[in-house]
Amino acid sequence: MMSYAVEVDGLRVARGGREVVHDLTFSVPRGSVVGLLGPSGCGKTTLMRSVVGVQIVASGTVTVLGHPAGSRQLRRRVGYATQNPAVYADLSVRENLRYFASVLGAPRGDADRVIEEVGLGGARDRVAANLSGGQLHRASLAIALLGAPELLVLDEPTVGLDPVLRGELWGLFHELAARGTTLLVSSHVMDEAARCERLLLMREGELLADDTPDALRTRTGAQDLEEAFLHIIQGHEVAA
Amino acid sequence: MSLTITLATTRRILAQLRHDRRTLGLLIGVPSLLMILLRYVMDRPQAFDRYGPILLGVFPFIVMFIVTSIGTLRERTSGTLERLMTMPLGKLDLLVGYALAFGVTALVQAGVVGVIALTWLGLDLQGPVWTLFLVTLLDALLGMALGLFASAFARTEFQAVQFMPAFVLPQVLLAGLFVPRGQMSAVLQWVADVMPLAYAVEAMRELTWHRSVTGTLARDVAVISGCALLALVLGAATLRRRTD
Ligand SMILES: Nc1ncnc2c1ncn2[C@@H]1O[C@H](COP(=O)(O)OP(=O)(O)OP(=O)(O)O)[C@@H](O)[C@H]1O
Ligand SMILES: [Mg+2]
């Protein structure tokens, strides 16, 4: 039972009077890095919101670390970085992290640790409003890392970052996974997809594939993942 | 509810205010200036004794209403509220955190405006000074609670700003700013009776004019506290862990 960090069964979500997630069922194994991919508007953010328990769902169940998503017991054990950076623009990076660290009851020094982990050491005393787009994203990501949660749900955490920084962050994600953290990461970048152990491919609120990158390449006979995705997404269109 | 989280929230809000020097300056400066202006527009000490307390009762309310409605709207739209709602923060932690931070701010504001009014402008305060601060504090908390509640109905900052005149000006008019309440029609008096701000203004009058704590003042304090509490409960109900 505890081998899965996330178990989604028959999930349906309606937003703005329209069903945008249709009957999703999948599981995320513990200690793995799972990528969530799909065209813009396909429902990645909605799915992640359901996993952290801030989304009103129409039906189905979402079980996280053995509890229903959003349960009180999960509030220290799940870290979530929203797609748009959620930080206080009028506070410095360190003040932001100190505040969220006290809310989480994270150990002293955790704020400084995560600032270093996302490479914001040089900007720790800068007010968030004066950060660059990528720095702001990393500040928001750092908050999710506070208190060493068992599950990290990261919505496009590396958007707007250069290849070097992206590489460093993915190094960090794998390090965390090696220590037993489970990561569910959405992305639009194919070289990132290749670094995931499993991939969930969505289109228009449906799950098209749930497999390892290698299996996806083999199944489609494609050279690279980009081609494999196009193949699956278009193949589905033909079948539909 | 957790004391650590509540106090961390208070510290965070005060830090936000500290970074925003201009807002802090306006919070203290604007009421002081208006008070001075009122004194010299009246130009008669008796008239100032009559209208000064009204302003004392209205400022903390208006200021805290605006600051809280914009502040919580920003928390909602910037995603920080959603983020907090995934964390072990109780709604009460957030509300009490806000209340403490803005309560402190309101007391500083009342301190400065009160000193200016009582010394330089010669406002004649009969009652004990602590009643002035007590009523100011409750008044500010009432403004804060209603601001929090109102922010739930605003999707943009433009809308939130419009709620201020909508919530506040009718109350100020009915509280007897231009026409004494006794001269209003029965219907308006009845409406005024259910407007919490009217009690704040009345309380300010009572404590400036009477040497001891009157029964009316005690009743006003009770009514303001009750309304602030009710508004806080309503405000709390608008904080949702799950949204669409
Ligand atoms: N607040 C909302 N109200 C109504 N509909 C919404 C809302 N947010 C998203 N939607 C709709 O729900 C669907 C899924 O949106 P979602 O944000 O989950 O997509 P996404 O896969 O994360 O896209 P992107 O890659 O662009 O971030 C879209 O059709 C979108 O228009
Ligand atoms: Mg998204």
Descriptive overview:
The complex is a heterodimer of chains A (240) and B (244). Chain A is globular, with a radius of gyration of 18 Å. Chain A has helices at residues 44-52, 93-104, 110-117, 133-145, 163-178, 190-193, 213-220, 225-239; strands spanning 4-15, 18-29, 33-37, 59-64, 67-68, 78-81, 151-155, 182-186, 198-203, 206-211. In chain A, helix 2 packs across helix 3 (110-117), helix 3 (110-117) crosses helix 4 (133-145) and helix 7 packs across helix 8 (225-239). Chain A has 240 residues and is α/β, with parallel strands linked by helices. Chain B has 244 residues and is mainly alpha-helical. Chain B has 10 helices and no strands. Chain B has helices at 3-19, 21-42, 45-78, 80-85, 91-118, 129-151, 157-174, 186-193, 196-209, 215-237. The longest helix of chain B is centred in the N-terminal third of the chain and has 34 residues, at 45-78. The mean pLDDT of chain B is 88. The chains are: A alpha/beta (240), B mainly alpha (244). Chain A binds chain B through residues 15-16, 52-56, 70, 72, 75-76, 78, 80, 82, 84-92, 95, 99-100, 102-105, 127, 143, and chain B through 4-5, 8-9, 11-12, 15-16, 19-20, 78-80, 82-89, 241-244.
List unreliable stretches of 5+ residues of chain B: none
> Strand portion of chain A, in percent?
25-35%
Strand content of chain B: under 5%
Task: Give the SSE string of chain B.
Answer: HHHHHHHHHH
| Rg estimate of chain A, integer Å | 18 Å
- List low-confidence stretches of chain A: none
Q: Structural class, from secondary structure content of chain B?
A: mainly alpha
- The N- and C-terminal alpha carbons of chain A lie at a distance of 35 Å
- The total of beta strands of chain A comes to 10
Query: What's the helix-strand series of chain A?
Result: EEEHEEEHHHEHEHEEHH
- Secondary-structure-based class of chain A equals alpha/beta
Shape of chain B: globular
| Major sheet attributes of chain A | 6 strands, mixed
| Largest sheet features of chain B | none
**Helix proportion of chain B:** over 70%
Physical arrangement of strands within the biggest beta sheet of chain A:
6-7-8-3-9-10
Task: Tell me the overall shape of chain A.
Answer: globular
